[in-house]
Amino acid sequence: MKKFKEEYTREMLILPIIIVIIWYLICDFFQLVPSYAFPGPIDVANSFVKLSLSGKLFIDIFETLYKVLFGMLLASTVGILLGIILGWYKRLERLCKLVISILRPIPPIAWIPFSIIWFGLGIGPAVFIIFMGCVFPILISTIDGVHRTDPVLIEAAQSFGASDRQMLTEVIIPSSLPFIVSGLKVAIGIALMCTISGEMIGSSSGIGYMILTSTNLFDTGSTVVGMLVIGVIGIIFDYIFTKIQERIFW
User: Fold this and answer.
1) Which of 236, 237, 213, 210 is nearest to 225 (CA)?
2) I need a labelling partner for 223 at 20 to 30 A (CA). Which of 41, 86, 108, 193 fits?
């Protein structure tokens, strides 16, 4: 098993290494693309060192993570609780279905003007946009998880005289957990995209703000650093949720 994981890790690294080599040859070695249009890996590495030594990069990472986690916490709380309620009470779900169907396709960035009007500049708009982007994937996944609960389990619990509370805590929620985690895994990627969009327009801190200001100053190296940092954060969150899924399905 350990050998398989090592081989799998090596295979995953092959394509990124090839991309970096081609990137270096095009941008740095042959200089086919000017640095102001797209920086080479050497420029990006220098920008990373500069931002790291100044401490600005880590401050922006902390600001972005704070917004992501805060927005995800709010979206998870509302999405999971509401999803369990709507999934269990079919009549209530039918009552809310039209409103959910109307609101769900609206892009989170469409809420940016209202988020700035309601919350001003700062953390508030970004958190609100994250909430609007993440709550619906979590909600739909939770409803689907409740619907997919094995009827045999429900009938068995009812035959033993389980109360509504016991039914939820011992049957519905454990059965729905894999679907809830899948919804959270999808939502965290949306949260990162929403955060960057929100920080570019309604914030004065974070990775998105750093990308915007770097681009305005034609500091493309720092821009790419910000983009890569977001990608790395996404990989870390994806790994965490994958491990949680493995434990649940184990």
Assistant:
1) 210
2) 108
